[in-house]
Amino acid sequence: MPNHVSPFELDNVCKSIIVRCTMDRALLIRYALMTAFVALLVALGGQRTASAERPDSFADLAEKLSPAVVNISTTMVVNGNNRPQMPQFPEGSPFEDFFKEFQDRGEPSRRAQSLGSGFIIDAAGIVVTNNHVIENADEISVVLANDESFKAEVIGRDAKTDIAVLKIDPGNSSLTAVSFGNSDGLRVGDWVMAIGNPFGLGGTVTAGIVSARGRDIGSGPYDDFIQTDASINRGNSGGPLFNLDGEVIGINTAIFSQTGGSVGIGFAISANLATQVVGQLQDYGRTRRGWLGVFIQEVTED
């Protein structure tokens, strides 16, 4: 490096330093603006994610899932066996023949009908519902959202978990099926949506949140109910409870009510329990449970 620098060279060096500082400052400003822009995008993305967790409408989900939910109509013949008891008259009394004729009439047989809900899990015609919806039924009809009706046969049913699996022959009709989700992933406060046939009104959509998990309501030895405040009424039994991904995470089964109507406390069989039972009913027509060969006997000296 030379010991002496001319005024001309010094002037050029200073100009170079000034230009470089100016460029660095512009780069710093540009970098700061880009950083702020990225931070804004991240914040907006977080807001969109939170908004997605709180949907403004369930319309798209309901439109997609409703065709998989069916109405179930059952018919049962009730025999007339409640004959009036004849009063005791002295033998030969003129009233004896009259009351005997009245007693022989009895109560005629009648056909009782009930309504419930269900959902299609296989487009080949496999339908899941509650056992109590089809119990003791002589005829079972499955009605689709488009009012097509099919006769159904029972593949299998399990009274202890209140689950039944039906089979229909769709023929040339195209069926929409839904799948079970993982109910263990549910958290209290998650959004859920129920679709069913309350009071025979047909496809009805209600929404709410998961109010509690693992409820035991004393209905059987395998109670593992999801409690929800989504409106569930008579006729919703057997219908699906969906999460926001459109997966069945429960089967609507029972309500707590002193009036018979919804008071915001409904119960659904958890999907993880239902999946096991439905699979066994499809494969074997019944459930296969382990048992322990132990019995009690009197303790003797021997």
Quickly describe the structure.
This protein is α+β, with helices and mostly antiparallel strands. The protein contains five helices and twelve strands. The radius of gyration is 35 Å and the shape is elongated.
Give descriptors for this structure.
302 residues; alpha+beta; six-stranded antiparallel beta barrel; 5 helices; 12 strands
Characterise this structure.
- By secondary structure, the protein is α+β, with helices and mostly antiparallel strands.
- 28% of the residues lie in helices and 28% in strands.
- It is built from 5 helices and 12 strands.
- The strands form 2 sheets. The chain has a 6-stranded antiparallel beta barrel. The chain has a 6-stranded antiparallel beta barrel with strand order 7-8-9-12-11-10.
Topology diagram in text:
Layout: H1 7-53, H2 59-65, E1 69-78, H3 94-105, E2 110-122, E3 126-129, H4 131-134, E4 139-143, E5 149-158, E6 163-168, E7 191-196, E8 204-215, E9 225-228, E10 240-242, E11 248-255, E12 266-270, H5 271-284
Antiparallel strand pairs: 1-2, 1-4, 2-3, 3-6, 4-5, 5-6, 7-8, 7-10, 8-9, 9-12, 10-11, 11-12
In terms of structural class, how would the helical and strand content be classed?
Answer: alpha+beta
Supply the number of helical segments. Answer: 5
Describe the strand arrangement of the main beta sheet, using strand numbers. Answer: 1-2-3-6-5-4
As a whole number of angstroms, the C-alpha radius of gyration is 35 Å
Distance between the amino and carboxyl termini: 114 Å
**What portion of residues belong to β-strands?**
25-35%
Order of helices and strands: HHEHEEHEEEEEEEEEH
Mean pLDDT: 83
Instruction: Count all strands and give the number.
Output: 12
Backbone shape: elongated
Low-confidence stretches: 47-52
